[in-house]
TrEMBL record:
Domain of life of the organism encoding this protein: Bacteria
Protein name as it appears in the record: Quinol oxidase subunit 3
Keyword Transmembrane: yes
GO MF annotations in UniProt: cytochrome-c oxidase activity; oxidoreductase activity
A GO BP entry: ATP synthesis coupled electron transport
Membrane topology classification: Multi-pass membrane protein
Function: Catalyzes quinol oxidation with the concomitant reduction of oxygen to water.
InterPro entries: Cyt_c/ubiquinol_Oxase_su3, Cyt_c_oxidase-like_su3, Cyt_c_oxidase_su3-like_sf, Cyt_c_oxidase_su3_a-hlx, QoxC, Ubiquinol_oxase_su3_dom
Stretches that traverse the bilayer: 22-46, 66-85, 97-116, 136-160, 180-202
Keyword list, A-Z: Cell membrane, Membrane, Oxidoreductase, Transmembrane, Transmembrane helix
Residue ranges occupied by any Heme-copper oxidase subunit III family profile domain in the UniProt entry: 1-201
Family indicated by similarity: Belongs to the cytochrome c oxidase subunit 3 family.
Organism: Bacillus licheniformis (strain ATCC 14580 / DSM 13 / JCM 2505 / CCUG 7422 / NBRC 12200 / NCIMB 9375 / NCTC 10341 / NRRL NRS-1264 / Gibson 46)
Length: 204
């Protein structure tokens, strides 16, 4: 074991323990299942894209300014999350805490705007039961928003543990895994932004 640890002494902090490496590998496998989940939701949305049942159309409700704000918040949070990982590899606990907290604040802002958006749509007559299109819309975006919310609470827990134990190979692996999760959600949002909002805004 000592030899194994020594042989990985030049590796990034999160890869210096066998448990950390296995956990990271396991999480990549988990992301494969997440990709399958969102691929199914996107496929369902694509099939039901024109099934509005004569009701309100997405172009009538989508607000380009609001969508751009949400996109800015989430993509910026991915950038700050990357800085946090960089600080982690430098061994700066303070840097990790600062940049991860900024990441969480940006993520919370995104969720707040999404809840506002959903509430606005409901008041305008677009609900899960309005049409097949809006059902697919709310399920897809709601699933993504739920994942972001779970990520926020998960990262808070990891930060509390890291604050208590310091930057170790174990806590670093958890931070790195949470960053993978966060970046994955940002990638999913890019597909939502393009496939849902941009297309929805031009299809009047």
């Amino acid at each position: 074991m000592e030899h194994a640890e020594h042989s990985n002494s030049n590796a990034p902090m999160e890869y210096r323990s066998e448990i950390g490496r296995l956990n990271i590998l396991g999480f990549w496998i988990f992301l494969g299942a997440e990709i399958a989940l969102f691929s199914t939701l996107f496929a369902t949305y694509a099939v039901l894209h024109n099934r509005t049942a004569g009701g309100v159309l997405p172009a009538e409700l989508f607000d380009a300014k609001l969508v751009l704000i949400m996109t800015f918040l989430l993509l910026t949070s991915s950038f700050t999350c990357g800085i946090a990982v960089h600080e982690m590899r430098r061994g700066s606990l303070k840097g990790v805490m600062i940049w991860m907290i900024i990441t969480l604040l940006l993520g919370a802002g995104f969720v707040s705007y999404e809840l506002y958006e959903f509430n606005h749509y409901v008041h305008e007559g677009a609900t899960l039961s309005t049409s097949a299109y809006w059902s697919a819309f709310f399920v897809l975006l709601g699933t993504h928003g739920l994942h972001v919310s779970i990520g926020i609470f998960w990262i808070i827990g990891i930060l509390l543990q890291t604050k208590k134990r310091g930057l170790t190979p174990q806590t670093s692996a958890k931070l790195f895994i949470s960053s993978l999760y966060w970046h994955f959600l940002d990638v999913v949002w890019i597909f939502i932004f393009t496939g849902v909002y941009l297309i929805g805004l031009v299809n009047v």
